[in-house]
Fold Helicase ATP-binding domain-containing protein.
Amino acid sequence: MTTSWADSVAASEEEAVAAAPAPAAAAAAKFSSDQASQPRPTRRTYVPPHLRSRPQSSVAPAPPSAAAPAVNDRSGYGGPPAGSWSTGGFRPDAGRSGGGHVPAGGRNGRGGGRDRGRDREVNPFADKDGLEQGIVGQENAAINFDAYEDIPVEATGNNVPPPAATFADIDLGEALNLNIQRCKYVKPTPIQRHAIPISLAGRDLMACAQTGSGKTAAFCFPIISGIMRGRYVQRPRGRTAYPLALILSPTRELSIQIHEEARKFSYQTGVKVVVAYGGAPINQQLRELERGVDILVATPGRLVDLLERARVSLQIIKYLALDEADRMLDMGFEPQIRKIVEQTGMPPCGLRQTMLFSATFPKEIQRLASDFLSNYIYLTVGRVGSSTDLIVQRVELVRESDKRSHLMDLLHAQRENGFHGKQALTLVFVETKRGADSLENWLYTNGFPATSIHGDRSQQVSCLVLFVL
Protein backbone atom coordinates (compact mmCIF):
# COMPACT_ATOMS: atom_id res chain seq x y z
CA MET A 1 0.00 0.00 0.00
CA THR A 2 1.39 3.41 -0.93
CA THR A 3 1.76 6.01 1.79
CA SER A 4 2.06 9.75 1.61
CA TRP A 5 5.06 11.79 2.68
CA ALA A 6 3.25 13.06 5.83
CA ASP A 7 2.41 9.48 6.92
CA SER A 8 6.02 8.36 6.55
CA VAL A 9 7.31 11.30 8.64
CA ALA A 10 4.80 10.58 11.45
CA ALA A 11 5.74 6.88 11.51
CA SER A 12 9.47 7.67 11.80
CA GLU A 13 8.85 10.01 14.78
CA GLU A 14 6.88 7.32 16.62
CA GLU A 15 9.71 4.78 16.07
CA ALA A 16 12.27 7.26 17.44
CA VAL A 17 10.29 7.83 20.64
CA ALA A 18 9.80 4.11 21.18
CA ALA A 19 13.54 3.46 20.73
CA ALA A 20 14.65 6.20 23.19
CA PRO A 21 15.98 5.13 26.64
CA ALA A 22 13.74 5.40 29.73
CA PRO A 23 15.39 8.51 31.34
CA ALA A 24 15.02 10.44 28.05
CA ALA A 25 11.39 9.43 27.71
CA ALA A 26 10.67 10.48 31.32
CA ALA A 27 12.34 13.86 30.74
CA ALA A 28 10.27 14.40 27.61
CA ALA A 29 7.08 13.56 29.50
CA LYS A 30 8.01 15.95 32.38
CA PHE A 31 8.74 18.78 29.89
CA SER A 32 5.38 18.32 28.21
CA SER A 33 3.52 18.33 31.58
CA ASP A 34 5.33 21.48 32.75
CA GLN A 35 4.54 23.19 29.47
CA ALA A 36 0.87 22.32 29.85
CA SER A 37 0.72 23.60 33.47
CA GLN A 38 2.24 26.98 32.65
CA PRO A 39 -0.27 29.68 31.64
CA ARG A 40 -0.21 30.77 28.06
CA PRO A 41 1.09 34.30 27.54
CA THR A 42 -1.77 36.77 27.20
CA ARG A 43 -1.95 39.49 24.61
CA ARG A 44 -1.42 42.98 25.94
CA THR A 45 -4.53 45.06 25.92
CA TYR A 46 -4.51 48.33 24.05
CA VAL A 47 -4.45 51.46 26.24
CA PRO A 48 -5.36 54.80 24.66
CA PRO A 49 -2.61 57.46 24.76
CA HIS A 50 -4.53 59.73 27.14
CA LEU A 51 -4.82 56.90 29.72
CA ARG A 52 -1.27 55.52 29.57
CA SER A 53 0.05 57.90 32.27
CA ARG A 54 -2.50 56.70 34.84
CA PRO A 55 -1.54 53.89 37.29
CA GLN A 56 -2.88 50.54 36.20
CA SER A 57 -5.45 48.87 38.38
CA SER A 58 -4.36 45.72 40.13
CA VAL A 59 -7.80 44.21 39.87
CA ALA A 60 -8.04 42.01 36.82
CA PRO A 61 -11.18 42.27 34.74
CA ALA A 62 -13.72 39.58 35.44
CA PRO A 63 -13.82 36.89 32.77
CA PRO A 64 -17.01 36.59 30.81
CA SER A 65 -19.53 34.21 32.29
CA ALA A 66 -19.84 31.01 30.35
CA ALA A 67 -23.46 30.59 31.46
CA ALA A 68 -24.68 33.89 30.10
CA PRO A 69 -25.53 33.68 26.42
CA ALA A 70 -24.12 36.22 24.05
CA VAL A 71 -26.58 38.98 23.32
CA ASN A 72 -26.66 40.68 19.95
CA ASP A 73 -28.52 43.97 20.19
CA ARG A 74 -28.35 44.78 16.48
CA SER A 75 -31.71 45.35 14.90
CA GLY A 76 -32.85 42.36 12.92
CA TYR A 77 -30.41 39.87 14.47
CA GLY A 78 -31.81 39.31 17.95
CA GLY A 79 -33.52 35.99 17.25
CA PRO A 80 -32.23 32.57 16.30
CA PRO A 81 -30.37 32.25 13.02
CA ALA A 82 -32.39 32.00 9.88
CA GLY A 83 -33.53 28.52 8.99
CA SER A 84 -33.01 27.08 12.55
CA TRP A 85 -34.95 24.80 14.85
CA SER A 86 -37.02 26.49 17.55
CA THR A 87 -40.01 25.65 19.70
CA GLY A 88 -42.60 24.16 17.46
CA GLY A 89 -40.27 22.84 14.78
CA PHE A 90 -38.20 24.21 11.95
CA ARG A 91 -38.94 27.83 10.92
CA PRO A 92 -37.39 29.01 7.67
CA ASP A 93 -38.18 32.64 8.55
CA ALA A 94 -36.60 32.58 12.02
CA GLY A 95 -34.11 35.34 12.72
CA ARG A 96 -35.55 37.81 10.19
CA SER A 97 -36.48 41.24 11.37
CA GLY A 98 -40.20 41.02 11.93
CA GLY A 99 -40.35 37.39 10.79
CA GLY A 100 -43.49 36.38 9.00
CA HIS A 101 -44.15 36.36 5.31
CA VAL A 102 -42.01 38.24 2.82
CA PRO A 103 -44.27 39.92 0.22
CA ALA A 104 -44.00 38.91 -3.39
CA GLY A 105 -41.52 40.89 -5.42
CA GLY A 106 -38.82 41.12 -2.76
CA ARG A 107 -38.36 42.36 0.78
CA ASN A 108 -40.04 45.49 2.12
CA GLY A 109 -42.91 44.93 -0.28
CA ARG A 110 -40.96 46.24 -3.27
CA GLY A 111 -42.68 44.79 -6.27
CA GLY A 112 -42.06 45.35 -9.92
CA GLY A 113 -43.21 48.23 -12.08
CA ARG A 114 -44.34 51.54 -10.60
CA ASP A 115 -44.76 50.23 -7.02
CA ARG A 116 -40.99 49.97 -6.59
CA GLY A 117 -39.64 52.53 -4.15
CA ARG A 118 -43.06 53.91 -3.20
CA ASP A 119 -42.38 53.41 0.51
CA ARG A 120 -39.08 55.33 0.17
CA GLU A 121 -40.67 58.28 -1.66
CA VAL A 122 -40.10 61.64 -0.03
CA ASN A 123 -43.32 63.29 1.08
CA PRO A 124 -43.51 66.67 -0.73
CA PHE A 125 -46.32 67.80 1.58
CA ALA A 126 -44.32 67.34 4.80
CA ASP A 127 -42.89 70.30 6.69
CA LYS A 128 -39.32 70.62 7.89
CA ASP A 129 -40.09 68.30 10.83
CA GLY A 130 -41.39 65.59 8.49
CA LEU A 131 -45.02 66.05 9.56
CA GLU A 132 -47.95 66.41 7.19
CA GLN A 133 -50.85 68.68 7.92
CA GLY A 134 -54.44 67.54 7.77
CA ILE A 135 -56.18 67.50 4.41
CA VAL A 136 -59.85 67.55 5.36
CA GLY A 137 -61.97 70.66 5.60
CA GLN A 138 -59.25 73.17 4.70
CA GLU A 139 -58.85 75.50 1.77
CA ASN A 140 -55.72 76.85 0.17
CA ALA A 141 -55.61 80.33 1.62
CA ALA A 142 -53.17 81.54 -1.03
CA ILE A 143 -55.72 81.07 -3.85
CA ASN A 144 -58.89 83.11 -4.13
CA PHE A 145 -61.11 80.64 -5.99
CA ASP A 146 -64.12 82.96 -6.03
CA ALA A 147 -62.19 85.52 -8.07
CA TYR A 148 -62.05 83.10 -11.02
CA GLU A 149 -65.80 82.82 -11.43
CA ASP A 150 -66.22 85.89 -13.65
CA ILE A 151 -63.34 85.12 -16.04
CA PRO A 152 -64.70 84.57 -19.58
CA VAL A 153 -63.89 81.24 -21.25
CA GLU A 154 -64.41 80.31 -24.90
CA ALA A 155 -63.82 76.89 -26.47
CA THR A 156 -63.97 76.29 -30.22
CA GLY A 157 -63.67 73.01 -32.11
CA ASN A 158 -65.57 69.85 -32.96
CA ASN A 159 -67.40 67.95 -30.22
CA VAL A 160 -66.05 69.93 -27.28
CA PRO A 161 -66.46 67.95 -24.01
CA PRO A 162 -68.54 69.74 -21.35
CA PRO A 163 -66.69 71.47 -18.50
CA ALA A 164 -66.57 70.08 -14.95
CA ALA A 165 -67.84 72.12 -12.02
CA THR A 166 -65.82 70.32 -9.31
CA PHE A 167 -62.94 67.88 -9.07
CA ALA A 168 -65.40 65.27 -7.84
CA ASP A 169 -67.06 65.35 -11.28
CA ILE A 170 -63.73 64.32 -12.90
CA ASP A 171 -62.60 60.71 -12.60
CA LEU A 172 -58.88 61.19 -12.02
CA GLY A 173 -58.20 58.23 -9.74
CA GLU A 174 -58.21 57.80 -5.98
CA ALA A 175 -54.52 58.55 -5.40
CA LEU A 176 -54.58 61.71 -7.52
CA ASN A 177 -57.78 62.93 -5.88
CA LEU A 178 -56.12 62.50 -2.48
CA ASN A 179 -53.18 64.63 -3.60
CA ILE A 180 -55.58 67.30 -4.83
CA GLN A 181 -57.05 67.38 -1.34
CA ARG A 182 -53.54 67.59 0.12
CA CYS A 183 -52.94 70.64 -2.09
CA LYS A 184 -56.18 72.08 -0.65
CA TYR A 185 -57.68 72.66 -4.09
CA VAL A 186 -61.39 73.09 -3.47
CA LYS A 187 -62.67 73.66 -7.01
CA PRO A 188 -61.01 73.93 -10.41
CA THR A 189 -60.07 77.22 -12.02
CA PRO A 190 -61.70 78.08 -15.37
CA ILE A 191 -58.85 76.65 -17.46
CA GLN A 192 -58.80 73.50 -15.33
CA ARG A 193 -62.58 73.20 -15.55
CA HIS A 194 -62.43 73.07 -19.35
CA ALA A 195 -58.93 71.73 -20.18
CA ILE A 196 -58.98 68.64 -17.93
CA PRO A 197 -62.13 67.09 -19.48
CA ILE A 198 -60.81 67.88 -22.98
CA SER A 199 -57.48 66.18 -22.25
CA LEU A 200 -59.11 63.20 -20.53
CA ALA A 201 -61.17 62.71 -23.69
CA GLY A 202 -57.94 62.25 -25.65
CA ARG A 203 -58.23 65.47 -27.65
CA ASP A 204 -55.35 67.77 -28.57
CA LEU A 205 -55.56 71.19 -26.95
CA MET A 206 -54.35 74.69 -27.73
CA ALA A 207 -54.99 76.90 -24.67
CA CYS A 208 -54.34 80.60 -24.21
CA ALA A 209 -54.35 81.71 -20.58
CA GLN A 210 -52.43 84.14 -18.41
CA THR A 211 -49.77 83.23 -15.90
CA GLY A 212 -51.30 82.31 -12.57
CA SER A 213 -54.49 80.80 -13.99
CA GLY A 214 -53.65 77.19 -13.02
CA LYS A 215 -52.16 75.88 -16.27
CA THR A 216 -49.69 73.53 -14.54
CA ALA A 217 -52.43 71.47 -12.92
CA ALA A 218 -54.48 71.66 -16.13
CA PHE A 219 -51.96 69.54 -18.05
CA CYS A 220 -50.41 67.59 -15.14
CA PHE A 221 -53.67 66.07 -13.90
CA PRO A 222 -54.65 64.41 -17.23
CA ILE A 223 -51.09 63.19 -17.87
CA ILE A 224 -50.72 61.57 -14.44
CA SER A 225 -54.21 60.08 -14.61
CA GLY A 226 -53.58 58.70 -18.11
CA ILE A 227 -50.29 57.06 -17.07
CA MET A 228 -51.95 55.52 -14.02
CA ARG A 229 -54.76 54.06 -16.14
CA GLY A 230 -52.55 52.93 -18.99
CA ARG A 231 -51.33 49.40 -19.35
CA TYR A 232 -47.79 48.55 -18.33
CA VAL A 233 -45.35 49.43 -21.09
CA GLN A 234 -42.38 47.14 -21.62
CA ARG A 235 -39.28 49.31 -22.01
CA PRO A 236 -35.92 48.20 -23.39
CA ARG A 237 -33.17 47.55 -20.89
CA GLY A 238 -30.14 49.76 -20.80
CA ARG A 239 -29.02 53.22 -19.78
CA THR A 240 -31.43 55.00 -22.12
CA ALA A 241 -34.55 56.44 -20.46
CA TYR A 242 -37.93 56.02 -22.17
CA PRO A 243 -40.42 58.52 -20.71
CA LEU A 244 -44.13 58.32 -21.43
CA ALA A 245 -44.76 62.07 -21.18
CA LEU A 246 -42.67 65.13 -22.05
CA ILE A 247 -43.25 68.64 -20.68
CA LEU A 248 -41.19 71.38 -22.34
CA SER A 249 -40.69 74.79 -20.73
CA PRO A 250 -38.48 77.72 -21.76
CA THR A 251 -36.47 78.31 -18.55
CA ARG A 252 -34.90 76.20 -15.82
CA GLU A 253 -36.78 78.14 -13.13
CA LEU A 254 -40.13 77.28 -14.71
CA SER A 255 -39.00 73.67 -15.19
CA ILE A 256 -38.11 73.42 -11.50
CA GLN A 257 -41.47 74.90 -10.56
CA ILE A 258 -43.38 72.45 -12.79
CA HIS A 259 -41.33 69.56 -11.40
CA GLU A 260 -42.11 70.49 -7.79
CA GLU A 261 -45.82 70.74 -8.52
CA ALA A 262 -45.86 67.51 -10.51
CA ARG A 263 -44.13 65.71 -7.63
CA LYS A 264 -46.96 66.77 -5.34
CA PHE A 265 -49.62 65.65 -7.79
CA SER A 266 -47.91 62.28 -8.42
CA TYR A 267 -47.13 61.45 -4.78
CA GLN A 268 -47.93 57.79 -3.96
CA THR A 269 -49.26 57.19 -7.48
CA GLY A 270 -46.22 55.29 -8.75
CA VAL A 271 -45.59 57.88 -11.47
CA LYS A 272 -41.94 59.04 -11.50
CA VAL A 273 -41.23 62.67 -12.45
CA VAL A 274 -37.70 63.83 -13.40
CA VAL A 275 -36.48 67.29 -14.37
CA ALA A 276 -33.58 68.12 -16.73
CA TYR A 277 -32.33 71.65 -17.37
CA GLY A 278 -29.13 73.40 -18.36
CA GLY A 279 -26.80 75.39 -16.14
CA ALA A 280 -26.51 72.51 -13.65
CA PRO A 281 -24.29 69.38 -13.49
CA ILE A 282 -25.65 66.73 -15.81
CA ASN A 283 -24.39 63.74 -13.81
CA GLN A 284 -27.07 63.97 -11.14
CA GLN A 285 -29.77 64.32 -13.79
CA LEU A 286 -28.42 61.25 -15.60
CA ARG A 287 -28.58 59.23 -12.37
CA GLU A 288 -32.18 60.27 -11.85
CA LEU A 289 -33.02 59.21 -15.40
CA GLU A 290 -31.37 55.83 -14.91
CA ARG A 291 -33.59 55.17 -11.88
CA GLY A 292 -36.65 55.40 -14.11
CA VAL A 293 -38.85 58.17 -15.46
CA ASP A 294 -42.48 58.41 -16.55
CA ILE A 295 -42.80 62.20 -16.91
CA LEU A 296 -39.80 64.22 -18.07
CA VAL A 297 -39.83 67.99 -17.48
CA ALA A 298 -37.06 69.60 -19.53
CA THR A 299 -35.79 72.69 -21.26
CA PRO A 300 -35.17 72.37 -25.02
CA GLY A 301 -31.39 72.81 -24.90
CA ARG A 302 -30.70 70.20 -22.23
CA LEU A 303 -33.14 67.76 -23.81
CA VAL A 304 -31.36 67.99 -27.16
CA ASP A 305 -28.10 67.26 -25.35
CA LEU A 306 -29.60 64.17 -23.69
CA LEU A 307 -30.99 62.97 -27.01
CA GLU A 308 -27.61 63.35 -28.73
CA ARG A 309 -25.99 61.38 -25.90
CA ALA A 310 -28.59 58.63 -26.44
CA ARG A 311 -29.58 58.85 -22.77
CA VAL A 312 -33.21 59.71 -23.53
CA SER A 313 -35.49 58.26 -26.19
CA LEU A 314 -38.86 59.71 -27.19
CA GLN A 315 -40.07 56.67 -29.14
CA ILE A 316 -42.89 55.76 -26.71
CA ILE A 317 -44.08 59.27 -25.86
CA LYS A 318 -47.84 59.37 -25.32
CA TYR A 319 -48.25 62.91 -23.97
CA LEU A 320 -46.52 66.10 -25.08
CA ALA A 321 -47.10 69.41 -23.27
CA LEU A 322 -45.51 72.75 -24.23
CA ASP A 323 -45.81 75.40 -21.52
CA GLU A 324 -45.19 79.07 -22.31
CA ALA A 325 -44.86 78.21 -25.99
CA ASP A 326 -44.84 81.86 -27.07
CA ARG A 327 -41.94 82.61 -24.77
CA MET A 328 -39.98 79.65 -26.14
CA LEU A 329 -40.40 81.08 -29.63
CA ASP A 330 -39.30 84.53 -28.44
CA MET A 331 -36.15 82.99 -26.94
CA GLY A 332 -35.29 81.35 -30.29
CA PHE A 333 -36.09 77.74 -29.36
CA GLU A 334 -38.20 76.97 -32.44
CA PRO A 335 -35.42 74.99 -34.22
CA GLN A 336 -34.80 72.88 -31.12
CA ILE A 337 -38.51 72.30 -30.58
CA ARG A 338 -39.03 71.18 -34.17
CA LYS A 339 -35.99 68.90 -33.94
CA ILE A 340 -37.33 67.33 -30.74
CA VAL A 341 -40.84 66.78 -32.07
CA GLU A 342 -40.14 65.93 -35.70
CA GLN A 343 -36.64 64.40 -35.92
CA THR A 344 -36.08 62.25 -32.80
CA GLY A 345 -38.47 59.37 -33.38
CA MET A 346 -41.36 60.80 -31.37
CA PRO A 347 -44.74 59.37 -32.46
CA PRO A 348 -46.46 61.75 -34.90
CA CYS A 349 -49.55 63.80 -34.09
CA GLY A 350 -52.56 61.55 -33.97
CA LEU A 351 -50.60 58.80 -32.20
CA ARG A 352 -49.69 61.05 -29.29
CA GLN A 353 -51.71 63.63 -27.36
CA THR A 354 -50.39 67.19 -27.52
CA MET A 355 -51.23 70.13 -25.26
CA LEU A 356 -49.90 73.57 -26.14
CA PHE A 357 -50.24 76.45 -23.64
CA SER A 358 -49.47 80.05 -24.45
CA ALA A 359 -50.30 83.51 -23.10
CA THR A 360 -50.59 84.98 -26.62
CA PHE A 361 -51.58 83.64 -30.03
CA PRO A 362 -49.21 85.09 -32.66
CA LYS A 363 -48.75 83.65 -36.13
CA GLU A 364 -45.77 81.56 -35.04
CA ILE A 365 -47.91 79.84 -32.40
CA GLN A 366 -50.65 79.25 -34.96
CA ARG A 367 -48.09 77.61 -37.27
CA LEU A 368 -46.83 75.40 -34.43
CA ALA A 369 -50.39 74.41 -33.57
CA SER A 370 -51.13 73.40 -37.15
CA ASP A 371 -47.91 71.32 -37.34
CA PHE A 372 -48.00 69.65 -33.92
CA LEU A 373 -51.74 69.28 -33.19
CA SER A 374 -54.42 67.15 -34.79
CA ASN A 375 -58.13 68.06 -34.71
CA TYR A 376 -57.45 70.25 -31.70
CA ILE A 377 -59.71 72.38 -29.54
CA TYR A 378 -58.84 76.06 -29.12
CA LEU A 379 -59.46 77.31 -25.58
CA THR A 380 -59.17 80.95 -24.47
CA VAL A 381 -59.40 82.00 -20.84
CA GLY A 382 -59.73 85.71 -20.12
CA ARG A 383 -58.42 88.32 -22.51
CA VAL A 384 -55.65 86.92 -24.71
CA GLY A 385 -52.37 88.80 -24.27
CA SER A 386 -53.39 90.61 -21.08
CA SER A 387 -52.36 90.06 -17.48
CA THR A 388 -54.67 88.32 -15.07
CA ASP A 389 -57.32 90.44 -13.37
CA LEU A 390 -56.15 89.22 -9.96
CA ILE A 391 -53.03 91.42 -10.20
CA VAL A 392 -53.42 95.08 -9.22
CA GLN A 393 -51.08 97.27 -11.26
CA ARG A 394 -50.18 100.72 -9.97
CA VAL A 395 -47.61 103.13 -11.39
CA GLU A 396 -46.07 105.81 -9.16
CA LEU A 397 -43.53 108.45 -10.21
CA VAL A 398 -40.76 108.74 -7.61
CA ARG A 399 -37.53 110.69 -7.75
CA GLU A 400 -34.28 108.74 -7.83
CA SER A 401 -33.23 109.95 -4.37
CA ASP A 402 -36.57 108.92 -2.83
CA LYS A 403 -36.84 105.39 -4.25
CA ARG A 404 -35.37 103.57 -1.27
CA SER A 405 -37.43 105.44 1.30
CA HIS A 406 -40.57 104.79 -0.75
CA LEU A 407 -39.66 101.10 -0.98
CA MET A 408 -39.22 101.03 2.79
CA ASP A 409 -42.72 102.47 3.26
CA LEU A 410 -44.18 99.75 1.02
CA LEU A 411 -42.35 96.99 2.89
CA HIS A 412 -43.51 98.28 6.29
CA ALA A 413 -47.10 98.40 5.00
CA GLN A 414 -46.86 94.81 3.79
CA ARG A 415 -45.40 93.68 7.09
CA GLU A 416 -48.27 95.24 9.02
CA ASN A 417 -50.87 93.76 6.67
CA GLY A 418 -49.60 90.18 6.76
CA PHE A 419 -51.71 87.63 4.87
CA HIS A 420 -53.13 85.06 7.32
CA GLY A 421 -50.15 85.47 9.63
CA LYS A 422 -47.64 84.84 6.83
CA GLN A 423 -44.94 87.26 5.81
CA ALA A 424 -45.63 88.68 2.36
CA LEU A 425 -42.96 88.12 -0.29
CA THR A 426 -41.70 91.04 -2.37
CA LEU A 427 -39.90 90.91 -5.72
CA VAL A 428 -37.88 94.01 -6.65
CA PHE A 429 -36.37 94.52 -10.12
CA VAL A 430 -33.28 96.71 -10.51
CA GLU A 431 -31.25 97.86 -13.48
CA THR A 432 -27.76 96.49 -12.75
CA LYS A 433 -26.11 93.61 -10.92
CA ARG A 434 -24.26 96.03 -8.66
CA GLY A 435 -27.55 97.71 -7.84
CA ALA A 436 -29.06 94.34 -6.86
CA ASP A 437 -26.20 93.58 -4.46
CA SER A 438 -26.31 97.10 -3.00
CA LEU A 439 -30.06 96.97 -2.43
CA GLU A 440 -29.76 93.52 -0.85
CA ASN A 441 -27.20 94.77 1.69
CA TRP A 442 -29.24 97.91 2.44
CA LEU A 443 -32.45 95.94 3.06
CA TYR A 444 -30.68 93.42 5.27
CA THR A 445 -29.11 96.23 7.29
CA ASN A 446 -32.56 97.78 7.85
CA GLY A 447 -34.09 94.58 9.21
CA PHE A 448 -35.60 93.04 6.06
CA PRO A 449 -34.16 89.61 5.12
CA ALA A 450 -33.24 89.87 1.45
CA THR A 451 -31.25 88.08 -1.23
CA SER A 452 -30.48 88.72 -4.88
CA ILE A 453 -30.30 86.80 -8.14
CA HIS A 454 -28.38 87.99 -11.18
CA GLY A 455 -26.05 86.75 -13.88
CA ASP A 456 -22.95 86.63 -11.68
CA ARG A 457 -24.58 84.17 -9.28
CA SER A 458 -24.12 80.48 -9.94
CA GLN A 459 -27.04 78.25 -10.81
CA GLN A 460 -26.78 76.44 -7.47
CA VAL A 461 -27.05 79.73 -5.57
CA SER A 462 -30.02 80.82 -7.68
CA CYS A 463 -31.82 77.51 -7.09
CA LEU A 464 -31.12 77.76 -3.37
CA VAL A 465 -32.55 81.27 -3.26
CA LEU A 466 -35.71 80.17 -5.05
CA PHE A 467 -36.03 77.17 -2.73
CA VAL A 468 -35.76 79.40 0.36
CA LEU A 469 -38.39 81.76 -1.02
